[in-house]
Amino acid sequence: MKLILAIVNDEDGNKVINELSKNGFSVTKLATTGGFLKAGNITMIIGTDDDKVQDVIEIIRSKSHRRTQITASPMPMSASASFTPYPIEVQIGGATIFVLDVDHFEKV
């Protein structure tokens, strides 16, 4: 058995969850916030059999898309430095997926 942790952009999260549910996968949804842009994410916890991991990953890949966003440049680490923020282009979206082995699973 495997435990899949998938971090997906808020804009794609419900599409991913709906598609996973439609295909028979149970999903636990956690609202999370990313560190760099401080933007909303959805972290999904999915338990599945080893042979279904690729199916889950393909569903996530098909429903979560990368996009470009303009944001202000990050603040310098030194507070004494003068700073004028300027717009930078960053890639957001897509998914970060972790697949972990499960030693024991029990549903009570």
The strand order across the widest sheet is 2-3-1-6
Estimate the mean pLDDT confidence.
Answer: 85
What is the structural class?
alpha+beta
Radius of gyration: 17 Å
Low-confidence stretches: none
Please trace the helix and strand order, writing H or E for each element: EHEEHEEE
Count every beta strand, where a strand is a DSSP E run of 2 or more residues.
6
Share in β-strands:
35-45%
Biggest sheet architecture: 4 strands, antiparallel
Q: How many H/I helical runs?
A: 2
Distance between the termini: 17 Å
The helical percent reads: 10-25%
Shape field: elongated
Describe this structure in words.
The structure is a single chain. The chain has 108 residues and is α+β, with helices and mostly antiparallel strands. Helix content is 22%, strand content 41%. The chain is built from two helices and six strands; from the N terminus they run βαββαβββ. It has a four-stranded antiparallel beta sheet with strand order 2-3-1-6. The protein has a two-stranded antiparallel ribbon with strand order 4-5. Strand 2 and strand 3 form a beta hairpin. Helix 1 crosses helix 2. The protein is elongated. The mean pLDDT is 85.
Summed up:
The protein has 108 residues and is of the alpha+beta class. The protein has helices at residues 10-22, 53-63, and strands at residues 2-9, 28-33, 40-48, 66-72, 87-93, 95-101. The chain is built from two helices and six strands, in the order βαββαβββ.
